[in-house]
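Follow-up to my earlier ticket, as requested here are the two runs.
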Amino acid sequence: MITRLILYLLLATLCCAAPAPPPPVQLLRSLAASITATAPKTPINNVARIVRKLRGLSAVARNPKATLKYYGGPVLNRLEVTTLFLGKNPNQSGINAFHAFLVKSPYMDFLSSEYSGPDGKIGYGTLKGSYVETDAKMLAKKAYTDDGIQSYLTTLAKQKRISPNRNSYYPIYLPPGKSVSLQGLVSCENFCGYHGAVNVTKLGIPNTPYLYYAVIPDQTGSCAGGCGMGSAFENLCSVSSHEVAEVVTDAAMSLVTSVDPMQPMAWFAPESDSGGEIADMCNTIQEQLTDATGKKWTVQKLWSNANQKCMAQITPSKAKPTTRRV
């Protein structure tokens, strides 16, 4: 049975709706963050209303003009990205280049302008490195589970193959043909990606109670066309930016132990029925940002409290140097 808490957390942490609308009888097992541009008939508003009722809230119409509020949880103000690939991946170099750009881009300036936390302004981050898993047993799996992913990350940390700190983020990329399941929901059937956190207090890492990660499936195959309007690689970048924004602004959401907003939740909009995190509220709405060489990168827009609309960067005429390179 899916509990109220699971319903609430899944709606917030999952990225993107399923490529095809599920039958109404499967609503409770077909949660996703919001309606995708390519599947406008997905009955996600009905799902959201059910979730709201289970949380003791009134069923209300979709409210795109929600407000993200800060609940005291961690905000990652100097993001350190280490990409993890489960085996060889044709997109590895491209995804690494995308993250190297994104963490020092106007995307981060926008986050800094509205969504910093008590530890200081959100600044530019770094791409720390890339790890490719080669273990034959791990790579032989055709389907992964979130429990298995968390155990895997904990093992990597114990073996010091990764060295997390309070700003570390580990997006895990699945190769083509592989899937991941989360509480009975399956990638590319029910979601395009998700982020989470593992409590690693027992590992004794200084000032690092949590390890933050995301799992992002390949955007070909059953994911094709369901997670954005661009090419497979553009959609992969878009989903990746969705998770980056939510890890920065609401890193430990998946560890919340109440059906009501509370720590370790950070920036969240409880009145929103589209998931409640900064990227959920603009799900699959894409924009392109240009790097110093003129190359265009596809990102997903994010919700702006100040402007009450979806944005990927501060309006040029209003832009101020809110971050510094690190």
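Run two:
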Amino acid sequence: MSLFSHRSSAGSASLPSFYSSKPLKPSKPISTFPSTRTPLPILVFSLICLFIGLAGTIFAISTIRRRQPLPVFRCGKSEDTFRAFYSSSVSGKLGDDNKEGLVDRPKLLGFVGIQTGFESGDRRSALRGTWFPSYPDGLLRLEQATGLGFRFVTGKSKDVQKMAMLEKEIEKYKDFMLLDVEEEYLKLPYKTLAFFKAAFKLFEADYYVKADDDIYLRPDRLATLLAKERSHSLTYIGCMKKGPVITDSKLKWYEKSGHLIGNEYFLHAYGPIYVLSAEVVASLAAARNNSLRMFNNEDVTIGSWMLAMNVHHEDNRAICDPRCTPTSIAVWDIPRCSGLCNPASKLKELHKIGMCSKSPTLPPDDR
């Protein structure tokens, strides 16, 4: 017996089945290169994906380059076009020092609504060439410097051409507050109420100022006036007046409801500019539109509401100065005109006078 016969027999029994004593046939060589032919379904799917990707890229580029519609901050149907511009992506150019973005109801010392109309484009142009900034960055910087926000305030019109012209001006300057009321001189009390309601809901100000577009204003001095400490939370600031009630319908200041007033008007402020404190405006904002009496004249209407609210009347002649002085805040041709006579030209004339535009905020004795 062979010396290794037992080990070989035992070992062969334990070998796996793929071991064989027969010689193995050589297998065909396996190619390591994939086939150059791509299946048709995969090719079609790839082309579809490429098409979708290209279409998405083209759409994204066109969307970025397309002019975006201006977003609008609203109170009901009233709109603040400047804050919409401030909040848009373009507004990164505005106020480099202000990185906190837009808040829903910004805190201000005062909000000033310059009441204007469709026929007053020359006045707005004159204002933008004098004390009112003519570009959004300047408007924002004025707000930051004084704590006062400024907007031109106007209603709307059914005249398509008028609205189209106004929209072009808004697109260029972005300094309007649009009210959801019809712009009409005989409806000024309704516009004024709509202004205070919208201003209160859009801005958290200590004071709200109604001003006309035909006065020369010093924003820095107005801010100083509003910053004074007052013991009365219900305050009505203006050039106060009294006078006979006009009952002749042929005269300019005719008052249809004059019989409810009597022979003489109660104390109230001249209309070109006056100021209401926040608590006063809060009460007006909460009032129903048909719950307040409307007289023909806007200044009389406001004065009647102030009587009912038991406000403190603060008479200040610096906001109705007929000429520029070291203390004048608002200049207009009192009593000849309710505002400046020929305002478009007079605003420019006043701005060239150093006492009007370049004199210090406070006179020497008060600094």
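The only thing I checked on run two: The CA atoms of residues 209 and 275 lie 4 Å apart. Let me know what else you need.
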